[in-house]
Amino acid sequence: MAVTNCMKVIPVQYFILMQLVIFLPFALIRNLAKLSTTALVADVFILAGLVYIFSSEFSLIAEHGVAKVAMFNERDFPLLIG
């Protein structure tokens, strides 16, 4: 959402419905041995998602640079004892 400036192309309800249609049949399978190839496919999708997330974050850092990171807010720093 940071890249698209909070523009939603597909509403959230449709994403939930798509997940329901995809994952509900898998929940009904009793023999887990039948899911071994499905687990490999899921791993590929997880890897693709991680590559997408990291590549988009690295491109944002390359485009805008690294932001200033402070350990604490010096102006409104609360005192915590204990």
What does this structure look like?
With 82 residues, the chain is mainly alpha-helical. It has a domain at 12-64. Helix content is 55%, strand content 0%. It has helices at residues 12-27, 36-64. The longest helix has 29 residues, at 36-64. It is elongated and about 60 Å long. 0% of the residues are buried. The mean pLDDT is 79.
Distance between the termini: 39 Å
| Strand-residue proportion | under 5%
The total beta strand count reads: 0
Shape: elongated
List segments where confidence is low: pLDDT < 50 over at least 5 consecutive residues.
none
Largest sheet: none
Q: Radius of gyration in whole Å, from Cα?
A: 21 Å
Task: Work out the helicity level.
Answer: 40-55%
Order of helices and strands: HH
Structure annotation, total helices: 2
Structural class category: mainly alpha
Short note summarizing the structure:
With 82 residues, the chain is mainly alpha-helical. It has helices at 12-27, 36-64.
Defining traits:
mainly alpha; 55% helix; elongated
Topology at a glance:
Blueprint: H1 12-27, H2 36-64
